[in-house]
Amino acid sequence: MRLATVVVLLLALLAVPTLSACGNDEKASKTEIVTRLGLAAGATKHWIVDPAREGGFKKGADKRKRTIAKAVLAGGFTLRMLQKAKEEANQDPKLKKLLPSIAGATAAITALRGVIGGGDEGAISKLIGGGNPLDGLLSAARGQGLDVKEEVPSAAKLVGG
């Protein structure tokens, strides 16, 4: 099966929302947003940033196609986590301050995901720069008193949501 077909099939699976929305309880909302931001940051670092630094997207790299497919999945997963975090932040007046940072992280991941599929190592490295594209968002969340820790989701979780 061609890589493009596999990626399209996997992306179709990712389009199905599987995460439940949390209630209006402020504590539950904060717990959910902390979890989602931690998973988003962990997925981005483990499945995109680290492989880029290790040369996993270079032409001729061992298991390059698999690395690209996992990175595309991680990008989709991260975008879903950011969308859910945005919804939760919109419901909590204290967390609304995170909306600009969530929007910036979403734009960065969208751009990154767009170049990953093509495997352009130079473009990927340029967009990653010196670190995780979610670092600014994590810093803003910590500034709001949220104790966000990166959590690496399994490959199965990338597909299942």
From TrEMBL:
Signal peptide: 1-21
Keywords attached to this entry: Signal
Protein name listed in UniProt: Lipoprotein
Species this protein is from: Patulibacter medicamentivorans
